[in-house]
């Protein structure tokens, strides 16, 4: 079988776990952070650089690629891997989240979602079948079911109706999906309500997907609320399938997710803050534009082994970022992605060694986070 | 001696020549094109990428680096090589050209030039001594004398007075310059007047510099006028020293300069047009934004061996450029610089083989240029 998840290790004192997921473009060791390549490029990075920092899998956005350059063009190019020259695993989202973000410019029906393009206002329609058609054209290794992601503050009754619609759509996605070189993941919804999360998990897992995502988190709710849901939601999913928490990517969120049994994460956060000159370091996040760094001829993070930290100073990177030089954006992005890839690799080691608690404690203390 | 120019070959049917110039950071094989790294970075490129495409020497701009981040900061970092992590040869200009471009915001006296910074309007003063002080702080391998570059349309009398001022300034530069790990090049002026070019060359070469530049060309005059001056100006310079034509960098200008005895060139042209999506190909220049290329799944230039042409299609690069993705700017810049480096290497081969005429003819025919 092309897709196989192997659970390699379960931590005894946390719910963290290590695993391996096989795809047609290589194995993914979990827990894993997936950099986002919205428009068929992880902003500023070349594929070789992504490889160099041990990126295992990247994410592409169906909504953006559907509108431009179009999934038909990408299919003609031989698929997204070929188009962007990335030969590792790729995951595409369903487009659902982006479409629902359009707020007053979309209308949801049983059939699907009618919306106005954010680009030119043209009328577009995406149904579960259409989302799968697009994702089959793009040809990612892992694709996502088309779900509705309601606002976390929506009425409970609405969230219940919405999760039931998401279940019906999930079935239609499964029916529409015919490529056996792609794994279609299901998504559970249910907002911040435990009973609704349970209902959604029951309905979605009954459809037997090769992996599951927890949707509707990290959408504006408080950290406490997110952690509350994460305290039980992963347990509603089968242990022998990968679990993906969508839209999460700060060091703290990664730790908290991993300790609660999450295997996969994605977020634009590390790459977006990098382009604003903010970088992760073992001593906490720093904003390199700050005048403090003007004459600091040391690396971004003295404890980091990455190419950037081996070759460039804070003073130089600050100069580049202040002058809007592209090399500056490249260096901060490279470093931030290396930092997260490295962090996830170390978490894996710590899980195997049954030292995740101590590892987190040390990291938080130096990084300046409260436990 | 640290700096040595060896004339390796003189073409018999053109004035083209091959040579080698030794610097503390390595040898430069001439004729050579020097990519411009105005603000301590060749826009979009990493130092490793510059090396990968066999870049022999890069240029930094004294005016920009003096204003920001300041030559004192760069000196503190260990010099420009260390600051930007480029270990090959570097040339810095004198700042003169940028200062004179400020037009109505500068005033020239015997002492030097008072000007208002283009950034914040602050009053600044650069004299020959100051230019050399800055350039010694930056620590490039080759530095330039501070000259006046009058408008090509200026009165002949003004141009004569100006070139005489440039001579007096050249002497002061020589006196101020004390680093023996830097070669200070002289610059001849004289506008489009043969007698003034002769006078300037006589005065400047009498000072015995290790290399000479021809200034005041490619500043808005017609190609015919530039070629007219290039027909005799290089011959006014000693054959046993490198000759540098400042601000020139189209394929045609490189051919025409090389055939008239020029050894070194620099220009922002190839990198600037790259960021607008224009790329050199063996069939002529193309603008990749054009709709024609939307579904062309072939390389930028089918005859090119560079990393970009081996790995990416016109369709993908067009998509990136249209979406303002940084990787797009990286790929077009990389390709254009590779193209010029490769062109210069092939010109060298052709000079050695006494085939420069044929090589140019073939290139022009395919590129769509008239002979």
TrEMBL record, chains A, B:
Enzyme Commission no: 2.4.2.29
Known partners and oligomeric status: Homodimer. Within each dimer, one monomer is responsible for RNA recognition and catalysis, while the other monomer binds to the replacement base PreQ1.
Entry's family note: Belongs to the queuine tRNA-ribosyltransferase family.
Record's catalysed reaction(s): 7-aminomethyl-7-carbaguanine + guanosine(34) in tRNA = 7-aminomethyl-7-carbaguanosine(34) in tRNA + guanine
tRNA-guanine(15) transglycosylase-like domain ranges (all copies): 14-367
The protein's annotated pathway: tRNA modification; tRNA-queuosine biosynthesis
The protein's name in its UniProt record: Queuine tRNA-ribosyltransferase
Annotated spans, RNA binding: 247-253, 271-275
Species the sequence originates in: Acetohalobium arabaticum (strain ATCC 49924 / DSM 5501 / Z-7288)
GO terms assigned for molecular function: metal ion binding; tRNA-guanosine(34) queuine transglycosylase activity
Gene name for this UniProt entry: tgt
């Amino acid at each position: 079988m092309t897709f196989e998840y192997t659970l390699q290790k379960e931590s005894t004192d946390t719910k963290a776990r290590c695993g391996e997921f096989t795809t047609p473009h290589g194995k993914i060791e979990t827990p894993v952070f997936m950099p986002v390549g919205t428009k068929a490029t992880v902003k500023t990075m070349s594929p070789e650089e992504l490889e160099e920092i041990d990126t295992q899998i990247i994410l592409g956005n169906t909504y953006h690629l559907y509108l431009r350059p179009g999934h038909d063009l990408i299919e003609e190019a031989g698929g997204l891997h070929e188009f962007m020259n990335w030969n590792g695993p790729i995951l595409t989202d369903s487009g659902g989240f982006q479409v629902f973000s359009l707020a007053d410019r979309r209308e949801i029906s049983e059939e699907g979602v009618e919306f106005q393009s954010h680009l030119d206002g043209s009328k577009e329609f995406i149904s579960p079948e259409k989302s799968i058609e697009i994702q089959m054209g793009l040809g990612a290794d892992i694709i996502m079911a088309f779900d509705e992601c309601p606002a976390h503050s929506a009425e409970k009754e609405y969230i219940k109706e919405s999760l039931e619609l998401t279940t019906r759509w999930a079935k239609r996605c499964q029916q529409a999906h015919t490529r056996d070189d792609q794994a279609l993941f299901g998504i559970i919804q249910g907002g911040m309500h435990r009973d609704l999360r349970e209902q959604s998990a029951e309905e979605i897992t009954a459809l037997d997907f090769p992996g599951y995502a927890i949707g509707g988190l990290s959408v504006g709710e408080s950290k406490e609320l997110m952690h509350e849901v994460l305290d039980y939601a992963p347990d509603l999913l089968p242990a022998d399938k990968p679990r993906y928490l969508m839209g999460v990517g700060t060091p703290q969120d990664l730790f908290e997710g991993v300790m609660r049994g999450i295997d996969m994460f994605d977020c634009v956060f590390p790459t977006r803050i990098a382009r604003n000159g903010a970088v992760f370091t073992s001593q906490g996040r720093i904003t390199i534009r700050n005048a403090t760094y003007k004459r600091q001829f040391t690396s971004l993070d003295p404890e980091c082994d990455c190419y950037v930290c081996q070759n460039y100073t804070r003073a130089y990177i600050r100069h580049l970022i202040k002058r809007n030089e592209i090399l500056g954006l490249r260096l901060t992005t490279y470093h931030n992605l290396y930092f997260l890839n490295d962090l996830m690799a170390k978490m894996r080691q710590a899980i195997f060694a049954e030292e995740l608690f101590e590892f987190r404690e040390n990291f938080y203390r130096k990084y300046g986070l409260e436990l």
